[in-house]
Design a protein that fits this description.
The structure is a homodimer.
Chain A (H helix, E strand, L loop, with lengths): L17 E18 L5 E3 L8 E3 L3 E15 L8 E4 L19 H7 L4 E5 L10 H4 L7 H7 L29 H5 L10 H14 L3 E6 L1 H12 L4 E7 L16 E5 L9 H14 L3 E5 L18 H17 L3 H9 L1
Parallel strand pairs in A: 5-6, 5-7, 7-8, 8-9, 9-10
Antiparallel strand pairs in A: 1-4, 2-3, 4-6
Chain lengths: ~350, ~350
């Protein structure tokens, strides 16, 4: 999008110059996995290049995860912050909005957090291994338009006309839906354990951490907090696609679950919300932030991309900062239990 | 890798604090593509979540490309710089070396270039579409160890023992070969035209550009310079996997082709070098920089990750800066021909 196409202006001072004390990336986790008994084949990998005899038998690294970090020149928090994306997306979803505004990644860096953006294992720059897993699932843009609660149906319209089919009052920048569709990637449905293992390996290295996670990533964040409470200082789960099935009071990490709008009329979200509310009721450390209940209307499932995304970021930041100012009771308990 | 594992120190002043006037990312290119006539299927995408009926029929965006940019606070060059990775990798290969040193991305930002790292279409955060293309090709770490000229053969050794099997005098940080293996991703063999279309769309927006490209990316850089000379100010191709098959003198863009070591004993690279040298001989704007001929020994195919990677970056930077200080004769010709 060029600047002139933008319908939502940047909040002044929240894009542009940025001073870092370090930035970089790394891969973490994964394992060597061996394939054998398959035939070789010849491939020309570049027109005019030399043919390559590809033997698929041998070793691959699978399940590793890519992490990109940006540490502000003047940090204002001692706890590292991790952004975990949802299904069908990559870490790119935190960097920018479809209409080209600066995203939550920069927001949290500018608020003084050591910010880490992850591509879940098998997504984005983490790599994937179809030679072991077969074909992944891909979601159509029509399904995403509905399931991410941008509008009731695209009705076969061109992507560039998506804004006409969005919910009245939607905060999603649907005029740039085509740019959002460019961000979508395939995923597998049976890789949860592998993805969780990579997240656990990351937090084994940098903990305790604050997690801000979305949709499928929300489920990973909550599950990681349940399994490794000593590694997680606090969780903000934006519309988690599910919640852990655990005994009352067994979930110990301070958690905020944020819910957007248009849930009542959705095919799946009323039941998901019901499950989320039950989880919160059973575990007093879990708090619910319903944006409509707060008077914020029109938010889609892609809260961090909506027109009011920095308003929501402010709420998340303030909750996190207040939570981290309190004594971390669950960390002490985890340490004593060790 | 922790700092204590590093066998090669950072060059002082080339990592750590960094001041940017802007950074961000976007996707560009691609097209809407429709699938029809396939059956639907039910999937549980999150344990405890609501089942999703996935209808694969509908619209997908395919062939788009992810671009991440870092613009220094004090730019020292007016031409934007683009880093294009090779086959089996993503833009991550420019960010860091396997042993955790800071990579060419930061180097060029620190030298004052507006630096853009691309994930080629169908790699990394660009997304991919196996529902249209079938399964991609994956390379074993054993094949990569040989073909990237790190050593003659891993001989079935564990990845952590790779250093023992590297060429004597190798500049590749083979003690961290396992971390390099984490960076590998699958690729397709028939997507060149689609990838080139996305690169062309990018340069249609930000041109004329300086291209620094590697291996398969080298072929894309040279081909883009041949097809769109008006969009390319200069090309540095690190060990391009091929060169365009064009008439003498029809290639017009100032170009430096960099070649590493251990080529003579390789199964494929002597013929590839021969083809590269013929291309340079036919086109006077193409220059060859053979690192061994310059007294720099031990470089692998992964020049930008080798222990002397910043020495090579200096040579590339100096050639680019000198080239950009000259009048751009081919751009004037391209403009006149328009």
């Amino acid at each position: 999008m060029s600047a002139s196409d933008r319908q939502t202006p940047e909040r002044p001072g929240w894009s542009g110059p940025l001073r870092l004390r370090d930035m970089g990336s790394f891969h973490i986790g994964g394992q060597a996995q061996t394939l054998c008994g398959h035939p070789t084949s010849q491939h020309l990998l570049a027109a005019g290049g030399q043919p390559v005899e590809l033997d698929p038998n041998g070793t691959y690294v699978t399940g590793q995860m890519y992490v990109q970090y940006y540490w502000p020149e003047t940090p204002e928090h001692t706890t590292p912050l991790f952004l975990w994306h949802g299904g069908g997306l990559t870490g790119a979803c935190w960097e920018t909005t479809p209409d080209g505004r600066s995203g939550w990644q920069q927001y949290f860096v500018r608020r003084g957090w050591d910010t880490h953006v992850c591509d879940a294992a098998e997504r984005g720059r983490s790599g994937y291994a179809p030679q072991f897993w077969g074909l992944p699932l891909s979601q159509t843009v029509e399904a995403v338009f509905e399931r991410f609660r941008i509008g009731p149906s695209l009705q076969g319209a061109a992507l560039s006309d998506a804004a006409q089919y969005a919910f009245a009052g939607s905060q999603f920048p649907a005029e740039a839906f085509a740019a959002f569709a460019q961000q979508l990637v395939p995923r597998w449905a049976h890789t949860d354990a592998m993805i969780l293992a990579a997240y656990a390996a990351l937090l084994a290295r940098q903990a305790p951490a604050a997690l801000v996670c979305h949709s499928q990533g929300g489920m990973f964040g909550l599950t990681t907090a349940l399994n490794h409470p000593e590694r997680v200082r606090a969780v903000v789960a934006l519309e988690p696609s599910s919640v852990p099935d655990c005994d009352a009071d067994s979930y110990q990490v301070p958690t905020l679950i944020v819910l957007g709008d248009f849930i009542d009329g959705d095919a799946r979200w009323p039941r998901m919300r019901e499950r989320i509310l039950r989880f919160a009721k059973r575990n007093p450390c879990v708090h619910i932030l319903s944006l409509p209940a707060l008077g914020l209307h029109g938010n889609s499932h892609m809260l961090m991309m909506d027109r009011n995304h920095l308003h929501i970021a402010d709420l998340v930041h303030d909750w996190l900062a207040a939570e981290l100012a309190k004594p971390a009771a669950h960390l002490r308990r985890a340490t004593v239990a060790d």
